[in-house]
Structure of adenylate kinase:
Amino acid sequence: MVRERIISEMWRRTTWLPPLFSSSKRSLVNQIQGAYGLRIWRTTSSEIQKPEEDGTFPRGITPFITFVLGGPGSGKGTQCARIVENFGFTHLSAGDLLRQEISSNSENGAMILNTIKDGKIVPSEVTVKLIQKAIESSESHKFLIDGFPRTEENRLTYERIIGAEPNIVLFFDCPPEEMVKRVLNRRQGRVDDNANTVKERLKIFRALSLPVVNYYAKKGKLYKIDGTGTEDEIFERVRPIFAA
Ligand SMILES: Nc1ncnc2c1ncn2[C@@H]1O[C@H](COP(=O)(O)OP(=O)(O)OP(=O)(O)O)[C@@H](O)[C@H]1O
Ligand SMILES: O=c1ccn([C@@H]2O[C@H](COP(=O)(O)O)[C@@H](O)[C@H]2O)c(=O)[nH]1
Ligand SMILES: [Mg+2]
């Protein structure tokens, strides 16, 4: 109870502008770039640059990475589409990358399909390598990575392989009953949109994904967004994070 109160207080604090950014009218994203001296949106390079051991990126180029977290059906994909439309990010859904592996009959396809059907988590290296490939083959330098990391082990594997942390993390907070309702109404033919798998996904979200959310809250990178209401209402909560 006390722990929940502390975490909820941390989340509340992270939705306010941190003191570093509080006196400017620029968007949080622009201020973060400025504060860390990042030159990211004006670059024309198509390569993702790995940081050197001291954390600097060759030629000063680094992608701006936003992780988008939330339970099943919390609206991550829906809101990512709005952010892409309005702010030109490239959307990489970890779930979609895994589903593409299934469709392309890759060597991991059958394993991924069974894992998704069970509502479990695909081995971290598999997912991170897909994300890495997608970033490397994109011209973009600002990405929304949707539905990842789902576990602390996912997070550590990303840090090890990619060699960087996200710039910010969005978390769509939605009550479980609403998430279940949305998933069961989705009707996109997903193998995991059924009552049993959703129950397992919620269990995993609570046990393994919430600790990741808490980790970023403690680091001051988390923007907790109320995921209830209409899509428009939710997007109006997201907009100020990115708006110029
Ligand atoms: N605010 C909302 N109110 C009602 N329905 C919504 C809302 N936002 C999204 N939906 C619908 O709920 C379903 C789940 O949304 P979405 O796919 O964006 O969630 P998600 O977080 O990406 O879920 P998953 O983790 O399962 O991929 C979709 O059918 C979507 O159209
Ligand atoms: O990082 C990830 C992302 C997804 N999965 C598996 O895919 C399904 C569906 O993911 P969505 O984000 O809801 O589209 C998820 O339940 C996991 O089984 C994963 O293992 N790792
Ligand atoms: Mg989704």
Residues 1-24, 36-60 have pLDDT under 50 and may be disordered. The domain at 64-241 is CATH 3.40.50.300 (Rossmann fold). DSSP finds ten helices and five strands in the chain.
